[in-house]
């Protein structure tokens, strides 16, 4: 499986390429007052507002300064009613694409952060997958996509 490799703090993570709609450079975001720390704001994508989550803050870390290799990864986020909406993920130190053999993936055995999935070891060290479907708690999902899900 091909993954886009990035860092959260000093650790390596990957997002399956199949989950990524588009990769953008960091852009100006509109702040959302009262939103949780992990919500960085709204991205204006050709007139469409796209909420952006900071993966470092979601993991409980302070965000690094924006660097030349910081990107916003757009993914299709599936809502409870089966529809999808774009969700931006601010990822720091994006280093490129890597091939992760599916056979090398193993459960981490740790449930500290529900959005973190299986791990694989390689010459570059351990890499953990990010699970887009588990990124948002129900409260954050309701905040970002209110009025868009059917009750």
Automatic annotation (TrEMBL):
<protein>
    <submittedName>
        <fullName>Purine-binding chemotaxis protein CheW</fullName>
    </submittedName>
</protein>
<dbReference type="GO" id="GO:0007165">
    <property type="term" value="P:signal transduction"/>
</dbReference>
<dbReference type="GO" id="GO:0006935">
    <property type="term" value="P:chemotaxis"/>
</dbReference>
<dbReference type="InterPro" id="IPR039315">
    <property type="entry name" value="CheW"/>
</dbReference>
<dbReference type="Pfam" id="PF01584">
    <property type="entry name" value="CheW"/>
</dbReference>
<dbReference type="InterPro" id="IPR036061">
    <property type="entry name" value="CheW-like_dom_sf"/>
</dbReference>
<dbReference type="GO" id="GO:0005829">
    <property type="term" value="C:cytosol"/>
</dbReference>
<feature type="domain" description="CheW-like">
    <location>
        <begin position="1"/>
        <end position="141"/>
    </location>
</feature>
<dbReference type="InterPro" id="IPR002545">
    <property type="entry name" value="CheW-lke_dom"/>
</dbReference>
